[in-house]
Amino acid sequence: MKTMLYSFLMAAAVATPLVGCSDDDAPMEQRDWNTTTLFAASDAAAQDIYYKPLSGYVGDPMPFYDPVAKDFKILYLQDYRPNPVGTYHPIWGVSTTDAASYTSLGELIPCGGINEQDAALGTGSTIYNESDKLYYTFYTAHKYELAAGDSREMVMMATSPDFKTWTKSRTFYLRGADYGYEMHDFRDPFVFRGDDNLYHMLVSCKKGGKGVLAEWTSSDLKAWDHKGVFMSCMWDRFYECPDVFKMGDWWYLVYSELHSAVRKVQYFKGRTLDELKACTQSDAGLWPDAHEGYLDSRGLYAAKTASDGTNRYIWGWCATRSGKDNTKAIDWAGNLVAHKLIQHDDGTLTLGEVPAIAAKFANAAAPAIAAKSTTEGGSVEGDASNLKLSGNAWALFPRLAYQNRIEFTVKTAGNRDKFGISLVRGTDAGVFYSLIVNDESDDNRKVNFEQQGENGCGFLADNDGYVFQRPADNTYHIVITTDNSVCTMYINDQVCYTNRIYGIQRNCWSINSYSGTIEVSGLKVAGL
Length: 528
Hints:
Layout: H1 2-15, E1 57-66, E2 71-79, E3 91-96, E4 103-109, E5 120-129, E6 134-142, E7 153-160, E8 167-168, E9 186-193, E10 199-207, E11 210-218, E12 225-232, E13 239-247, E14 250-257, E15 265-270, H2 273-277, E16 301-307, E17 312-321, E18 330-343, E19 349-352, H3 355-360, E20 371-372, E21 378-383, E22 386-391, E23 393-397, E24 403-412, E25 418-425, E26 432-439, E27 444-452, E28 458-459, E29 468-469, E30 475-483, E31 486-491, E32 495-500, E33 508-515, E34 517-527
């Protein structure tokens, strides 16, 4: 239905002049969709592949697989913009069976009153207790007005028999200061079931000025015993939104690093929980892979996982940008973005495409080349089915829809050949935005975000990717999915790159060679 409607509107825009309400109004510009000039584009109010509610944005997802309903529930902090003073970020939710289509559950846990401990809400986690048939959500309670001796943050609890009606406990308050932790940084409770059949709760907090994950255990989710520090954070770091799970023979901690120099989702791994804890002991830095456990770019944050027993997905938010400007700083909250967790034979993790998202795009076809470079020192040969670019060259392709999937394979002739793709591009564009597979060294690559074009400023540091190993055969299988201004890029099931790029929809895009020679095959584009 959406595809048909979009096609109809495009045809109408070409065929029918648009006029104003009175003779004094100037007629609106008539757009020819077959041109390659740059068009202004704006996001839809609500988005569904990378979910955004009709009003507001998604903050800090709290995914949970519901063993009763047999679906995923993703609770999140509703960010209204502007938020009410003092009482903000109520917990809302969505449900999904495939991490590709979502049903809104509305508000589940409201904020407290302006003078209550939970005036504002923060991240938590949900678990189902089979013995009493109740859902338990533990969440951060953030007090607005502090009196002497008050803690800014505590952990509170709400329960529900049906995931619809939630009751806050007025007797359960977990306060860090009672256990020797600092009063004001005590948040993001995460509960999981251990091999010992006990429930374990981790809380992000500080002890003596150093970030730690504190641990409590329980047999019934009601009475909790303090077990001390589960893990110390490296150096001056602070691990937000912790998520611990077992996958195969490995235990994992996924977390979001708060430090402004990092601000990415990372992980540690261990064969046992004790081995996992030891990864940071005495600032050891026992990283799980060659790129310090990074799972994505700075475009994904506060990400946590859930599994239905077969597939494990990770949900985080892709931030909006100040003023909807691709060069500006990122905001707090944005769209809900899901990836599939991929576990490799050595226990390392990467993120890949969600199969159900790929399945939405059934109308893939090879695009025509709309324009190509003619500059000296570069060449473009062939068509979309067999394209060869050498030197400084590009091939431009027709306008994208609001939701798109682009798939192709790149083969570079040499180890240092450099290539990328550009979005929000037109033949008259003074600037456009590129995802460049940069040659960091002979054996390493990194996806960089750059503003290119005659008036471009170059590298944009706030959303670079992470270093990954160059494929031994110099072959890169690439999938790019966009939903309005949210863009994800996957390379060889080894690299995931999420970003916010305004203006993608209704504009052309290109594949670029910057040096050396690249061969492009299997290029297909599908739009909704």
